Amino acid sequence: MEEPSKPVEEKSTETPETPSVEVKEEKEEKPLEPETRTPEPSTEPKPESKEEPEEVVPEDEETITKVVQKQLSPFQKKIEEQTNIIEATNFIASKPEFAKYKDVIIKHMNHSAYKNIPVDRIAKMVAGDDLMKIGAEKEREAQKKVAETKGGGNTARQTQTGKDWHSASKEEYQAQREAVLGHQG
């Protein structure tokens, strides 16, 4: 049996550049292939890209902000109270004479009217009537320290003299004289 004749392929008159272009196109399609695959389903939520525009309407944003502030306010209040306790404790550590007023100082610091007033000012306000007593106690302590470090009152330097040679015996005097003069005569 004879094989059917194949049509003779005619060589195209195109330039050889054409096949190379086709080859380039094929090569370009291959790198695109992994991108066209469908990704495997994952349980992780996809992170939103920063390029996406916000989908929150300004009116909704205000409502959301109000709701979040309402839910966070107890936590913010607790944090502020803890901060006030720490500030008051640090102040009392540096000035222990205000220790008996600690609870009242903290109570005033937690009040909204005294929110921006420093701890030392609140402490002075709370201890107002007793500030004179506190000052007097400090003065007494300072005077006590001064009295402890004070000298005898005479700042003249005492000179140390040896023996009183006016009241020494004649033999002691002669012995000293010979010692000083080096046994001359």
Distance between the termini: 167 Å
Apparent shape: elongated
**What string gives the helices and strands in order?**
HHHHHH
Q: How many helices does DSSP assign? A: 6
What is the average per-residue confidence, as pLDDT, rounded to a whole number? 77
Number of strands: 0
Largest sheet: none
**Helix proportion of residues, in percent?**
55-70%
**Unreliable sequence segments:** 20-29
Q: Report strand %.
A: under 5%
| CA-based gyration radius | 51 Å
Structural class: mainly alpha
Which terms summarize this structure?
6 helices, elongated
Structure in words:
The chain has a domain at 59-148. Helix 2 (58-94) packs antiparallel against helix 3 and helix 3 (102-110) crosses helix 4 (119-126). Mean pLDDT is 77; it is low at 20-29. The relative contact order is 0.04. Helices cover 57% and strands 0% of the residues. It contains 6 helices and no strands. The protein is mainly α and 185 residues long.
